[in-house]
């Protein structure tokens, strides 16, 4: 099921909201991307990450758009890799073989 | 003597008692039962080890700065993606090989058993050959994994050297861009690895069907001599209980739901041992298994629940029963103070009868201060040992023996506490109360 999340300003900077609930935030003061919080927000436990759609509600804010793009790209790349990884989970020999 | 018998039972040293050991059936071999439990525990420990490793990986995911890439327009070389040595695979293949060879050795021992049919010997030989080729296959896989790791090592070293040389020659802008891309790529790698390993590390469903452990029984008279293990049933509840027993009393959480920190807090006297939480937990569980899979020898009464034990006082009664019925061995019994720790009523109602039976089979010499044994057992000879200032007095004779110096009944009434009352009761029973007044 498609999960539509909104990227907008939050109390401390920029945040991603799901039904008005803040799920992930980047602090404006340091603009550090916290990978653990990102993981917990989108991939931990049984969270459905298969069809996430991020909506940028701040398209005119350059800084915000940069953070949005970074987050969106990370989610896309990770989902793509995870899909591949989990579909061919038994074949981890390939990495080694490709190096040999 | 009675005290010693009781002590033997209470300390569960009865097996070491030569007399009783002959009555017990052969011991139960705990190995197959323990192995079944161990296999489930290994799955639990393996799950926990991976879970804790991933928890640590999760807490070290880190942060990276989000850089304004529009300001950077230099070309750069980015090092993303990583390959790492897979030592788990080497260990896993190695374990399969060595465990398989252990099974082969076990089969060899069975094969050497003289009672095994030739046909079954051949079958075991065939199975051994198959297992040997399986072990050899996983040995080869292990070697391939080791070679693979070596190649990864060389690859990492080459890339690392190249990266160092490259970074020395590029501009700060290029370095920034490269670093940004690396951060981005590393974040992807780590999240993907973490998530995929979490998905693969399935919560191990403990599949231990209830299994009652055999109790071997040998019936002797009205008793059952049982060889068993301390634990009588293995099932999921047993495994849950193992963990409850090693944790502090108020811990109700199931092991699979616990974090490493929770387990550390739940273990009594755990102050951060260098071997780590999981190894400490394993050690303590092993100690419980050692206790539970020990051989145990019990005696129950025929028809009663063989899993229940008789009280140590009752066990002593059994000992006298067995002594009284014993006819296989010749010789006399020397019994020192059988009355110790036994109520007067029990002596009257039970023990005297046992001694009467005992006396029918052999000569019995009892050392006692209790008049009941002297008066009520129809003893052939009473030997009184006393002393005066200068010497030891020895006086003997049948119960009613009397000479100019002493009478046995007089000695009993004078020197044995409660002797007179016992004699009166005895005489009353035989309607000889008139004689008592003569004493």
Describe, in short, the structure shown.
The complex is a heterodimer of chains A (100) and B (439). Chain A has helices at residues 35-42, 62-87, 93-99; strands at 3-9, 13-18, 21-27, 32-34, 52-56. With 100 residues, chain A is α+β, with helices and mostly antiparallel strands.
Structural features, described:
The complex is a heterodimer of chains A (100) and B (439). Chain A is α+β, with helices and mostly antiparallel strands. Helices cover 41% and strands 28% of the residues of chain A. In chain A, strand 1 (3-9) and strand 2 (13-18) form a beta hairpin. Chain B folds into 3 domains: 2-28 and 208-301, no CATH class; 32-200; 329-436, no CATH class. In chain B, strands 3-4-6 form a 3-stranded antiparallel beta sheet, covered by helices on one side. In chain B, a hairpin with a 4-residue loop joins strand 9 and strand 10 (392-397). In chain B, helix 10 (312-325) packs parallel to helix 11. Chains A and B meet through strand 4, helix 1, helix 2 and helix 3 of A and strand 1, helix 5 and helix 6 of B. Strand 4 (32-34) of chain A pairs antiparallel with strand 1 of chain B, so a sheet runs across the interface.
Layout of SSEs?
The complex is a heterodimer of chains A (100) and B (439).
Chain A: E1 3-9, E2 13-18, E3 21-27, E4 32-34, H1 35-42, E5 52-56, H2 62-87, H3 93-99
Parallel strand pairs in A: 1-5
Antiparallel strand pairs in A: 1-2, 2-3
Chain B: H1 2-10, H2 18-21, H3 31-59, E1 63-65, H4 87-111, H5 118-169, H6 172-200, E2 211-212, E3 216-220, E4 223-229, E5 233-234, H7 236-246, H8 260-266, H9 277-292, E6 295-301, H10 312-325, E7 333-336, H11 344-361, E8 364-367, H12 371-376, E9 382-387, E10 392-397, H13 408-415, H14 419-429, H15 433-436
Parallel strand pairs in B: 7-8
Antiparallel strand pairs in B: 2-5, 3-4, 4-6, 9-10
Helix pairs in contact in B: 1-10, 3-6, 4-5, 7-9, 10-11, 13-14
């Amino acid at each position: 099921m498609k999960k539509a999340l909104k990227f907008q300003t939050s109390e401390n900077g920029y945040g991603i909201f799901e039904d008005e609930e803040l799920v992930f935030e980047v602090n404006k003061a340091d603009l550090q991307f916290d990978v653990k919080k990102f993981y917990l927000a989108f991939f931990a436990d049984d969270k459905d990450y298969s069809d996430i759609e991020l909506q940028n509600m701040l398209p005119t804010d350059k800084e915000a758009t940069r953070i949005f793009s970074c987050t969106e790209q990370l989610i896309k790349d990770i989902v793509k890799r995870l899909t591949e990884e989990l579909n061919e989970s038994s074949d981890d020999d390939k990495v080694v073989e490709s190096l040999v | 003597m009675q005290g010693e018998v009781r002590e033997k039972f209470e300390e569960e040293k009865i097996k070491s008692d030569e007399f009783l050991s002959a009555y017990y059936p052969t011991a139960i071999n705990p190995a197959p039962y323990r192995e079944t439990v161990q296999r489930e525990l290994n799955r639990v420990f393996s799950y926990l080890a991976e879970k804790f490793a991933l928890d640590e990986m999760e807490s070290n995911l880190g942060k990276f700065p989000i850089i304004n890439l529009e300001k950077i327009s230099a070309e750069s070389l980015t090092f993303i993606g990583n390959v790492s040595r897979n030592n788990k695979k080497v260990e896993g293949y190695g374990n399969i090989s060595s465990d398989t060879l252990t099974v082969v050795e076990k089969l060899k021992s069975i094969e050497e058993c003289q009672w095994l049919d030739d046909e079954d010997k051949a079958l075991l030989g065939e199975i051994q050959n198959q297992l040997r080729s399986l072990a050899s296959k996983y040995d080869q896989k292990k070697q391939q994994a080791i070679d693979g790791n070596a190649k990864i090592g060389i690859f990492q070293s080459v890339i690392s050297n190249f990266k160092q040389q490259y970074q020395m020659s590029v501009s700060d802008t290029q370095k920034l861009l490269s670093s940004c891309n690396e951060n981005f790529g590393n974040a992807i790698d780590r999240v993907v690895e973490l998530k995929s390993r979490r998905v693969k590390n399935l919560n191990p469903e403990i599949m231990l069907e209830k299994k009652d452990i055999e109790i071997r029984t040998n019936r002797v008279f009205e008793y059952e001599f049982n060889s068993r293990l301390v634990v009588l049933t293995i099932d999921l509840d047993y495994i849950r209980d193992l963990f409850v027993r090693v944790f502090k009393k108020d811990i109700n959480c199931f092991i699979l739901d616990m974090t490493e920190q929770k387990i550390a807090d739940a273990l009594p006297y755990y102050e951060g041992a260098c071997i780590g939480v999981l190894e400490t937990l394993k050690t303590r569980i092993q100690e419980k298994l050692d206790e539970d899979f020990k051989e145990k020898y019990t005696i129950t009464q025929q028809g009663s629940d063989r899993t229940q034990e008789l009280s140590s006082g009752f066990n002593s009664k059994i000992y006298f029963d067995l002594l009284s019925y014993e006819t296989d061995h010749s010789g006399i019994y020397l019994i020192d103070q059988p009355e110790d720790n036994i109520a007067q009523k029990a002596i009257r109602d039970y023990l005297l009868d046992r001694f009467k039976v005992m006396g029918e089979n052999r000569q019995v010499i009892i050392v006692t201060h209790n008049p009941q044994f002297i008066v009520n057992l129809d003893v052939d000879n009473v030997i009184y040992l006393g002393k005066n200032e200068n010497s030891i007095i020895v006086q003997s004779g049948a119960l009613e023996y009397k000479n100019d110096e002493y009478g046995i009944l007089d000695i009993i009434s004078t020197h044995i506490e409660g002797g007179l009352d016992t004699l009166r009761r005895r005489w009353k029973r035989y309607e000889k109360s008139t004689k008592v007044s003569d004493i």
